[in-house]
Amino acid sequence: xxxxxxxxxxxxxxxxxxxxxxxxxxxxxxxxxxxxxxxxxxxxxxxxxxxxxxxxxxxxxxxxxxxxxxxxxxxxxxxxxxxxxxxxxxxxxxxxxxxxxxxxxxxxxxxxxxxxxxxxxxxxxxxxxxxxxxxxxxxxxxxxxxxxxxxxxxxxxxxxxxxxxxxxxxxxxxxxxxxxxxxxxxxxxxxxxxxxxxxxxxxxxxxxxxxxxxxxxxxxxxxxxxxxxxxxxxxxxxxxxxxxxxxxxxxxxxxxxxxxxxxxxxxxxxxxxxxxxxxxxxxxxxxxxxxxxxxxxxxxxxxxxxxxxxxxxxxxxxxxxxxxxxxxxxxxxxxxxx
Amino acid sequence: xxxxxxxxxxxxxxxxxxxxxxxxxxxxxxxxxxxxxxxxxxxxxxxxxxxxxxxxxxxxxxxxxxxxxxxxxxxxxxxxxxxxxxxxxxxxxxxxxxxxxxxxxxxxxxxxxxxxxxxxxxxxxxxxxxxxxxxxxxxxxxxxxxxxxxxxxxxxxxxxxxxxxxxxxxxxxxxxxxxxxxxxxxxxxxxxxxxxxxxxxxxxxxxxxxxxxxxxxxxxxxxxxxxxxxxxxxxxxxxxxxxxxxxxxxxxxxxxxxxxxxxxxxxxxxxxxxxxxxxxxxxxxxxxxxxxxxxxxxxxxxxxxxxxxxxx
Lengths: 338, 312
Prior knowledge:
The complex is a heterodimer of chains A (338) and B (312). By secondary structure, chain A is of the alpha/beta class. Chain A has two domains: 2-73 and 305-337, no CATH class; 77-300, Rossmann fold (3-Layer(aba) Sandwich). In chain A, 39% of the residues lie in helices and 21% in strands. Chain A has nine helices and twelve strands. Chain A has a six-stranded mixed sheet, with helices on both faces. In chain A, α7 (255-265) links the parallel β9 (226-233) and β10 (270-275). In chain A, α3 runs antiparallel to α4 (156-166) and α5 (177-186) packs parallel to α6 (211-223). Chain A starts with a strand and ends with a helix. Chain B is an alpha/beta fold. Helices cover 35% and strands 22% of the residues of chain B. Chain B has helices spanning 5-28, 65-79, 109-118, 131-142, 216-219, 225-230, 242-252, 263-273, 286-301, and strands at 32-38, 41-46, 56-58, 61-63, 85-92, 95-104, 150-155, 180-184, 191-192, 194-196, 202-205, 237-238, 255-258, 277-283. In chain B, the strands form five sheets. Chain B has a six-stranded mixed sheet, with helices on both faces. In chain B, strands 1-14 form a two-stranded antiparallel ribbon. In chain B, strands 3-4 form a two-stranded antiparallel sheet. The interface between A and B is large, with 58 and 61 residues.
């Protein structure tokens, strides 16, 4: 329950508040006097009596208010940090189960092992996310369809858990790159512009895109002010996105190169990193890490702040006076009896 | 009973002093570490077509089985104490796909909810539903997660294509190694199953001739042709397959609960099957201390003279 700008977690204690008025109606502490008129009318005593009753009310009310567990609810504040907003687009297709960067075709047969591209991608991305405290991450799940699985979040826990989940089990059937690229861009739609926006594609293959998809992607990426980073996980070390003289004729027309050409042709900041070894993968992430420290509006959640102590201090103050005064009266009564 | 004036004043002074001490303790006593048992849950939601059948009852209203499963998952998140971990997975085809490994449920409630909301039938990557195999894969993957979670598998148990009784997919693991509960979703009556198209949009219902009514093994055997022909052709309709799920649960050492009435009850069932782990939390005693202090002060001023004895 919210009251006076505070969140009261155990508000039911407040129902007992009327009890704090008991001292004003009750006479447990009064001495039975044979004839009331005998008691002199003493303004100082009257004042002391009222003061003590007030203190009792204060003590009881403060204790109840403390018990009702008031707290300043968690707050979201914005501060200027350094970093970027990054949507991770991790290929979930079956080919990602193949081993990463092998030298020969024969070595590419073990499926889903510890050196599979998906597991390696997970390890490095985990490290990357950990290194970047201010970044906001999103995660797009993509196979035949794509889903904006984890909308942009500051929670490192949630981001890392999603990345980790992605490394479990086997890959899914197919990839639909166009759909995935569009979904990722849509994560930024209707969001305030906070700073550098990146779609980080980690995949081992490309895809031929239809003309319609190309136009849509180009338009959306320009409109949302996005940069594309592509970490291309090579299955074969010698394969490259840029044509090289004397290479295998089989590679001249691969979809990866078409996608690469497309990314270069649209007017959007784009960088491709060709990871042919663990080291080059790590270097690619390090380079992105170095480049992407631009001013960014960071939303931070300040934890809730318990305020019970304030009331406990009030109660302590009132009880101190009460305990002293009642001990004094007891001492007086004791004395009188002697 | 009448208490003498002297005693009354004495007790009042004593109570006030004790209350003062208690409040001071409430302010300055450090929190006590205390151990709580919590369980970690991996929630696997069936997203196959049969989950679109609207025969699950939620707050007195009929909703689709998937809507029911999502809402119960959300409410169970709320039942889970802070410190417990919750993760999300979906099931389609013949496997469970983990979307988010278990994360602390209070701090990440918002992200868990965001992800739960994105779970839709359109996420299913293949139009088949092999429940038993999916449970096995869920168990296999849960084994790779630390701390090992309890699996909460929400499904109607509809196997498509059907499974032959003697050729039940084998479970390779150790039953009970990963604890879990199968939560049966859906009603008893056979109802038509909405059919989703390529885009995941519902487009008509599965027709009697769209699905296999006999499992692959039996249908390929000439000598079983008669028996096959006699089999009821109802696989295009769906209800909650309670007995199948029960068998499955006992095979993998899971518990089974059919359409639990409330999230609280489901949470209790989960807890009774789960392997809990204990975490240490800082327990602040201030509520107890200030509660007793209040009681003491209130005792002094309660209107005893109105409770029978008015001789005061």
